[in-house]
């Protein structure tokens, strides 16, 4: 038997190999009370779902005679479908996601990556297969898949000023999560959601913004520059831009909500100054509604 000292050393060695992001995501996932992740449709499984009136063609063995004895009609007892489903993730890694308005808040990328991995942890615990919406990491279940996802999400290198949803790996009738600030061109978002709808994929759009992007707390001489440095604007009266900026932001949110509605997806905005737990709970609930 190993000594306590040797056991502790081995435990610390194993813990050191665990990506910090995964450890944080596991902790966040553990704070969310998770119920049974029902598929909400009839099929093979162990859990009772509903009684329905018997129809011509139903075999007699499917009739629930105890329930039928309480009325003049025959009823069939249906179980809930419990085959594992695939959930596809896209988390924006672009330069714009690196913005934070305060050193006391995480940048948008840090929060988005944490939420993406935390929802993967919850789904994995529920027996679902989780992967990326592209071709590089097909959906699978198990702890090894979480490590693969953590490795991908731990790469903080920004790609371009603004991200475009990856939808090439959309599997028919899967579910999906897109997490981004959605501050770039919305045409790629519209195209990705149209492709998802064509394949029967339902899911959730989560917009992650810094509080300063909502409040626009700028006055006087201000230099605005994109995180990638490709866009630059200088003004002497930043305060005069506030109303126009807020109107444009409201229009963008309304358009995102409309696109989500048309694709039968859910949409919400999360701020990095707010609790990550509430955002994770919204994501998980949105996926349950999409099942």
SSE order and pairing:
Elements: H1 4-17, H2 20-30, E1 48-53, H3 65-68, E2 75-79, E3 86-91, H4 108-125, E4 129-132, H5 143-153, E5 175-180, H6 187-198, E6 202-209, H7 211-215, E7 222-225, E8 232-235, H8 242-262, E9 266-271, H9 276-290
Parallel strand pairs: 3-4, 3-5, 5-6, 6-9
Antiparallel strand pairs: 1-2, 7-8
Helix pairs in contact: 2-4, 4-5, 4-9
Which keywords apply here?
DUF58; 2 domains; alpha/beta; single chain; 5-stranded parallel sheet; two-stranded antiparallel ribbon; Rossmann fold; 291 residues; elongated
Structural commentary:
There is one protein chain. The chain has 9 helices and 9 strands. It has 291 residues and is of the alpha/beta class. It folds into 2 domains: 48-79, no CATH class; 86-290, von Willebrand factor, type A domain (Rossmann fold, 3-Layer(aba) Sandwich), CATH 3.40.50.410. The strands form 3 sheets. Strands 4-3-5-6-9 form a 5-stranded parallel beta sheet, with helices on both faces. It has a two-stranded antiparallel sheet with strand order 1-2. The chain has a two-stranded antiparallel ribbon with strand order 7-8. Strand 7 and strand 8 (232-235) form a beta hairpin. Helix 2 (20-30) packs across helix 4, helix 4 (108-125) packs antiparallel against helix 5 and helix 4 packs across helix 9 (276-290). Residues 35-46 have low confidence and may be disordered.
